């Protein structure tokens, strides 16, 4: 099994598959617009612009499970990200990333890349998962890890 087997909804509510990114290195991130880590959108966009021509993409999944820090609807989220941070990487519909209703993609990610001390639960916004070209989870990064700190890991996979 790999991340390519999961169906997701784009920010415009259109059904799609992660399979469209097959062969790319991916950084999958649960995001939020009203979080202390929200400025990470800027570095995520910079990574995307730097490496997209080499087969890399950032995939942003808004989530409102952490203190209601993503209260808007998809249109508001999309507008906020584009206007404030110039985001052009793919954004998807708001989802749950933990608990009983967690999206199957995030259940897969956490099973394959547990956090500190083996914890599988996502603890906060901007948890990041690095995926290789075959769709395997390579690493998990804490919300405090700035996206540009991951650049060397991305380059190594490209």
UniProtKB/TrEMBL annotation:
UniProt-annotated catalytic positions: 35
One GO molecular-function entry: peroxidase activity
Family recorded in the similarity comment: Belongs to the glutathione peroxidase family.
Keywords: Oxidoreductase, Peroxidase
Any GO BP annotation: cellular response to oxidative stress
Name used for this protein in its record: Glutathione peroxidase
Highest taxon of the lineage: Bacteria
Species for this entry: Peribacillus cavernae
PANTHER family the record matches: GLUTATHIONE PEROXIDASE
Family annotation (Gene3D superfamilies): Glutaredoxin
InterPro entries, sorted: Glutathione_peroxidase, GPX_AS, GPX_CS, Thioredoxin-like_sf
């Amino acid at each position: 099994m790999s991340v390519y087997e999961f169906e997701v909804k784009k920010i415009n509510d259109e059904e799609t598959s992660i399979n469209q990114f097959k062969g790319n290195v991916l950084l999958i991130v649960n995001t939020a617009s009203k979080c202390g880590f929200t400025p990470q959108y800027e570095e995520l966009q910079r990574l995307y612009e730097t490496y997209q021509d080499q087969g890399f993409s950032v995939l942003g999944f808004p989530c409102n499970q952490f203190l209601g820090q993503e209260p808007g609807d998809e249109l508001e989220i999309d507008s906020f990200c584009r206007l404030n941070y110039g985001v052009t990487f793919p954004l998807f519909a708001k989802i749950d990333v933990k608990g009983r209703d967690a999206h199957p993609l995030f259940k897969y990610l956490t099973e394959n890349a547990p956090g500190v001390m083996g914890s599988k639960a996502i603890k906060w916004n901007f948890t990041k998962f690095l995926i290789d070209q075959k769709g395997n989870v390579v690493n998990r990064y804490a919300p405090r890890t700035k996206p540009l700190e991951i650049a060397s890991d991305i380059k190594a996979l490209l």
